[in-house]
Structures are given as structure tokens and as C-alpha cells.
């Protein structure tokens, strides 16, 4: 089964607005990498943590 990513709110949001990222279909403890890009400044962020973290 392929993993499913759910992003809320869908589409774009402001840098100071919270974003909820949920991934379903992963094995317990399987690592997840997220990427974020700020269009205004061209900044790029990368976070990596085991699935389920942070809570």
C-alpha cells in the first residue's frame, strides 16, 4: 500500500500559520522527511524525524 500525505490547510498558507501534516500507510518508526520553501525569501527548510514525532 502506498503512503498517503494529508496537508491542512490545503494549498498555500502564511509562514506564521500552523500546518498539519499527516502521513498514513507507513511502517511503525519509519522515517519521514518534510520540506518547506518560503517563496518570498527563497529560504528552504528540511526536517526529518521518525513517524509519529513530533506529537
Short description:
This protein is mostly beta strands. It has a domain at 25-55.
The count of strands amounts to: 4
Shape annotation: elongated
Percent strand equals 35-45%
Give me the secondary-structure category: mainly beta
If helices are DSSP runs of H or I spanning 4 or more residues, what is the number of helices? 0
Summarize the main sheet.
2 strands, antiparallel
**Mean of all residue-level pLDDT scores:** 71
Report strand order across the widest sheet.
Answer: 1-2
Cα(first) to Cα(last) distance is: 24 Å
Approximately how much helix is present in the residues? under 10%
Radius of gyration: 13 Å
Question: Low-confidence segments, ≥5 residues, pLDDT <50?
Answer: none
Task: Write the H/E string, N to C.
Answer: EEEE
Amino acid at each position: 500500500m502506498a503512503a498517503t500525505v494529508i496537508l491542512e490547510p490545503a494549498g498555500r498558507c502564511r509562514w506564521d500559520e500552523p500546518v498539519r501534516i499527516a502521513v498514513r500507510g507507513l511502517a511503525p518508526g519509519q522515517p519521514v522527511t518534510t520540506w518547506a520553501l518560503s517563496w518570498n525569501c527563497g529560504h528552504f527548510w528540511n526536517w526529518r524525524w521518525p513517524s509519529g514525532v513530533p506529537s
